[in-house]
Amino acid sequence: MMDRPLTDVVVIGSANRDYLIRVEAIPAAGETVLARSLTNSCGGKGANQAVAASRLGARVSFVGCVGDDADGALLLREMRSEGVDVADVEVLHESTTGRAFVSVDDAGENCIAVVSGANAKVNAAKVRRVVERSDPQSIVVLQGEIPADTVAEAVRSAQPRRVIVNLAPVIALPDDVIAAADPLVLNEQEAATLSGVPVHDAESALEAAAALSPAPTSVVITIGAGGAVWSAEGTSGHEPVRTPVAAIDTTGAGDAFVGALAASLSHGNGLADAVGFGVRAGSYAVSRPGAQASYAYYSDLVPDLV
């Protein structure tokens, strides 16, 4: 599956220091609970997706911002150790590195609060320059944890490169930016927010994909244990989880999916195959704790290929 010539993957997005809190149940509003543990790890949707793609054989560069602090230095060291090119990461002397506070319950579900820090200063003009000098065959990957105007500038300057827009969290983007996404990647909640169609299974996910307006070039909607659906050029499909796993921690699983999707596309695979590969990578990640630490290498997923 991964024996074709590589295309570069340029990930533009966030880098955070994650603070992971393990609890029996996510607290309700006004409720205080006792946590079992607190651990630190490397995260941020952009950095996560870059590491996930690199571990799966893609040639990856990351574009973003960190603060001039210990957290930022650690994130850069870790991405370098994962084979990610960080030459275009800007270190901001008057900002702190982004931080994410993640609570994970006994069912593996999570809730996350992010303090953007330096991520809020990823500059549209710089991103445009980086994208324009990248290989015209590159795949550009974006998320919603950096300013909307930067995402829009990146998408517009990326043409004719293929652009994956993972709209997580959902931010307001111009119609032409959404229309250029190939694919637009959403989870159930994000798809419901944008389409107005409640998503709870593959059938309703495909209904939501068809209801998106403006319509992206292609769309992928992840549905947790149900796998993911895709729609492009009048065709659509469902890629289920082939080997069910017990979820330990869902933190960063969506990023594992997007990174694997980008890696597969970078090797010349079609969207359906890439979505299937992403589902396998996401399933692998939820069976292990943490975000980047839980991500598969290609050798981890090869035995599962059918």
TrEMBL record:
Cofactor requirement: Mg(2+)
Enzymatic reactions: D-ribose + ATP = D-ribose 5-phosphate + ADP + H(+)
Pfam families: PfkB (PF00294)
EC number: 2.7.1.15
Major enzyme class: transferase
Source organism superkingdom: Bacteria
Binding site for ATP: N187, T222, I223, G224, A225, G226, G227, G254, D255
Stored Gene3D superfamilies: 3.40.1190.20
First-listed, main subcellular location of the protein, grouped into a coarse class: cytoplasm
Domain Carbohydrate kinase PfkB positions: 7-294
Positions of substrate binding: N16, R17, D18, G44, K45, G46, A47, N48, E145, D255
Reported regulation of activity: Activated by a monovalent cation that binds near, but not in, the active site. The most likely occupant of the site in vivo is potassium. Ion binding induces a conformational change that may alter substrate affinity.
Compartments (UniProt record): Cytoplasm
Cofactor remark from the record: Requires a divalent cation, most likely magnesium in vivo, as an electrophilic catalyst to aid phosphoryl group transfer. It is the chelate of the metal and the nucleotide that is the actual substrate.
Active site: D255
TM spans (from-to): none
Keywords on record: ATP-binding, Carbohydrate metabolism, Cytoplasm, Kinase, Magnesium, Metal-binding, Nucleotide-binding, Potassium, Transferase
Function: Catalyzes the phosphorylation of ribose at O-5 in a reaction requiring ATP and magnesium. The resulting D-ribose-5-phosphate can then be used either for sythesis of nucleotides, histidine, and tryptophan, or as a component of the pentose phosphate pathway.
UniProt subunit comment: Homodimer.
Family: Belongs to the carbohydrate kinase pfkB family. Belongs to the carbohydrate kinase PfkB family. Ribokinase subfamily.
Protein name: Ribokinase
Gene source species: Microbacterium nanhaiense
Primary gene name: rbsK
